[in-house]
Specification:
The strands form two sheets. A seven-stranded mixed β-barrel has the order 1-2-5-7-8-9-10. It has a two-stranded antiparallel sheet with strand order 3-4. The protein has two helices and ten strands; from the N terminus they run E-E-E-E-E-H-E-E-E-E-H-E. The chain starts with 11 loop residues before the first strand and ends with a strand. 6% of the residues lie in helices and 51% in strands.
């Protein structure tokens, strides 16, 4: 039986928005943490994000919804931890008010840890875990 992943370990520090509006990339840095004997220090990467613009002022106040993988229009998200890339399904991105070259952003997502069978040191598999990431994005 799968167990809950300690999602509080995934703590965003900042993020960047780059690419083209119709295929943007959002990279979210996280505070490094230990998962058992492994150090986890990799960003969450969201690719093929379809946005109305990369101009932060034009994204302000926007709330966008996305289907889950494999439906058309999904965001190709992943998170590398313990020797595997774990899919991240993003269903909603909400942008706050842009200021000083940054924009606060809420991202509803689910880390699909069961996909690659991520386990704790006792060999118990983690279940897929939904959360909302709060991050300040800047353009690259």
């Amino acid at each position: 039986m799968a167990i809950p992943f300690p999602i509080e370990l995934i703590a965003p520090t900042n993020g960047t928005l780059s690419g083209d509006a119709d295929a943007a990339t959002i990279e979210i840095s996280i505070k490094p943490f230990r998962l058992g004997t492994e150090e986890v220090d990799a960003p969450i990467v969201l690719e093929e994000v379809s946005l109305p613009s990369l101009e932060l002022s034009q994204l302000a106040g926007e709330e966008l919804h996305f289907p889950k993988n494999p439906d058309d229009g999904y965001i190709d998200g992943s998170f590398y931890a313990v020797h595997a890339h774990h899919p991240v399904d993003v269903t909603r991105i909400k942008f706050g008010e842009a200021a000083d070259g940054t924009i606060p952003t809420s991202i509803d997502c689910a880390f699909q840890f069961a996909f690659e069978g991520l386990q704790n040191d006792a060999g118990e598999e983690y279940e897929s875990t939904a959360t909302t990431l709060e991050v300040i994005l800047a353009t690259d």
